[in-house]
């Protein structure tokens, strides 16, 4: 197999293509995504013991005995496959972005194509940052809260293996997706669809949308997890307002310099 051809971008052509050719390009992109995802899942499955150790680590600070209960006969295998899928999704994320870019590049303008690679790199960085933030900063106190809350009610905390691994996996993936919010906002700002004035005026609506989105993607329905998810997203939104203001200010300064230069040349 020619791996260089596997990663080649489609030829950029201003002439419209037939609908069936677009479908063929879409089919090729989906096949590439599935192939890479399956390969990364297979590689992750080989290292399932290391993956399980990583997922179990946050539990050590809460319950050193790690008293998880296996309630299903086939749970060990199905959980290993589920973990391999999530790990494969994270590992294949850069390639999935690349293949998506390959499909949409011919439809973009020259300006949008220049923004594509920085945007793809930022998307990967923000996703990994969200996963790391959830794993190291948010997950341990969340587990500790639920563990101690159960003990305060005089119940013996005894979590099932499936519930714990599903919760942790979905928790960190959800944070990774949530951290993509600044990129989406800044791309809209860069394309001229939004500016910092609109972001500032619609802050109240943004809070509602952010916490609604957080409620959708969080693995549990409790208010504690919702706040832990929505709080950082709101702070990221506030950061977007300041970044949008900086981009607008830089653009105005550049425009004023070009205008002054143009007037100077006309005066001569």
What string, H for helix and E for strand, traces the elements in order? HHHHHHHHHH
Strand content: under 5%
Average pLDDT over all residues? 80
Number of domains: 1
Main structural class: mainly alpha
Residue ranges: pLDDT <50 for 5 or more in a row? none
Radius of gyration: 23 Å
Continuous helix count: 10
Characterise this structure.
- The protein has 268 residues and is an all-alpha fold.
- It has one domain.
- The protein is built from ten helices and no strands.
- Helix 4 packs parallel to helix 6, helix 5 (110-152) runs antiparallel to helix 6 (161-178) and helix 7 (181-190) runs parallel beside helix 10 (223-267).
- The protein is flat and about 85 Å long.
- Belongs to the TatC family.
- It comes from Terrimicrobium sacchariphilum.
- This is Sec-independent protein translocase protein TatC.
Descriptive labels:
single chain; 268 residues; mainly alpha; 10 helices; flat; membrane; transport; protein transport
Question: Brief description of this entry?
Answer:
The protein is mainly α. Helix content is 79%, strand content 0%. Keywords: Cell membrane, Membrane, Protein transport, Translocation, Transmembrane, Transmembrane helix, Transport.
